[in-house]
């Protein structure tokens, strides 16, 4: 099958999936396609192994449950309700319960993949159409695998673009390639990513190793040298499929939180020659995770915890490359201790400073790549390289990203760590004097503030106006479609207690433990990290834990719109008893849809009418009993998602407007500074 035919096949599959009522957006469709592709690809792989070893190879999946047995016959095979019944009640339960008979058995891999995998399609006929299309793909054909890999990676990019709002940052392929190129793995070395996501670093490392292969034994060796761990079920599933498509037959990826192992228990078997990763930025871990680390190294910053893990998990002479945000280079407390370890107990030899926008559109947080070894050379000087932006550019963007060629100067200077206008060295003694602050600015640049040229600034404002016009035009079209859709849709009235269950994840506070408390902004501004406190500093003896996707409100300020949905970065944080917390049944109502309903001031007025109390202190509290009894209009999940998506258009236009206001304010100063420049 040629590339265009295969692309058309995948497009048809996605279009068929869009017709199914059980799938809502790519966050449902791509995982569904992934596990189906996995079973087909795995069956093709087994066919090849059976052909090469007809008398020795034992299939991992029993007869009758292999893809070839139930999925391949498009004319007389299962379809409709019979197909759904088989997949939901026989196939997936069987795959979940598979058990290997030895370490590294593929049965364990299959079981781990399907532990949290479900069939979300509701139409057995559409599922049959999808299966028939997948059957046209030959995973034993190198051209088919190559094409599907590229199509699949583009779908992963789409998914990661959508996930950026939830704090899941996609590492650009350019940065991945540069890091692997500099680390330069060799055959015989083990490679590990403790936060591997969809497997970008592992695949790039494997491709680098594959170029060195000269025989089948070496090919087998490098396949067994790639390791990863992923905490979340969706990236784990996608990563397994991604590695399989890149010819890693039995991916060594564990579904777990890398930080869940006690640092003191890491032995030689848990150590690696190379560790390369982009750990989560700014996240926070639950109390149980922090207990795995020495008291003096405990911190709420996940990146720092990963740095400790990486240092402990490196073999002698091991090498590491880690992406880290600017903030951890100069943070106090545990951050200082961890940086001291990096400098004095390891060979931190290079820091590459990346400019703004490299991780666009997810975040503009400036970041760095830390390169260090575990060898006898410690207390050394550090070479810095500040990647310059192309001439005329102020930042990288989603549409104008970083290109690999832009690392060429850095690569040329790397061997001898040469000094240029973009590179410099900071001596160990200076680092020590400054409490191991690694956030050292380029001394070759004169940091004198210069106001922007007012004409240039006006051009930027005009550009923002054009973007705003485009955004509003998209919003207008989407709104027109949505109004038509909503007019024909039944909004079912449901009491909140029909889809929301109040949860109280109570913990007793320990004096010497640190807790992250959440606050709540009014006008549906949402949850935010309010404070970090030791248990001894908190008057209360207990607190409640919040999980991702929880719906939370403030009893006292609900009348002012203090409602929010917990995001990934809020998972494991604490709230007081004044913040009722609810777990939402997402099969009925999406948490963000519920939040949209509570964005209406008219709803706040209703809430205020129910705020009663006998004392001044309790007068305005909105009790849970009234919240649970509220009746809200609920459309189908597709329409809920449409409403959520269209609200994002509005937020985007609001952000652009704020930027324009800020630029207008700067225009005044820029104009005056330019006029009076020669007279000041």
Q: Any overview of this molecule?
A:
Helix 2 (26-52) packs across helix 11 (233-245). The longest helix has 39 residues, at 637-675. By secondary structure, this protein is an alpha/beta fold. The protein is globular and about 80 Å long. Strand 13 and strand 14 form a beta hairpin. It has four domains: 1-140, Ferritin; 167-448, Vaccinia Virus protein VP39 (Rossmann fold), CATH 3.40.50; 473-490 and 641-679, no CATH class; 492-634, Adenine-n6-DNA-methyltransferase TaqI, Chain A, domain 2.
Write the layout of secondary structure elements.
Blueprint: H1 3-18, H2 26-52, H3 67-70, H4 80-96, H5 106-114, H6 124-134, H7 142-163, H8 173-183, E1 191-193, H9 200-210, H10 216-223, E2 226-230, H11 233-245, E3 252-255, E4 272-277, H12 287-290, H13 302-313, E5 314-325, H14 334-344, E6 347-354, E7 367-373, E8 382-386, H15 408-414, E9 423-426, H16 428-433, H17 454-487, E10 492-495, E11 500-502, E12 506-508, E13 514-521, E14 526-534, E15 542-545, E16 551-553, E17 563-565, E18 574-575, E19 581-584, H18 591-597, H19 601-609, H20 624-629, E20 631-634, H21 637-675
Parallel strand pairs: 1-2, 1-4, 2-3, 4-5, 6-8
Antiparallel strand pairs: 5-7, 6-7, 8-9, 10-20, 11-19, 12-15, 13-14, 15-18, 16-17, 16-19
Helix pairs in contact: 1-6, 1-7, 2-11, 4-5, 4-6, 8-9, 13-14, 17-21
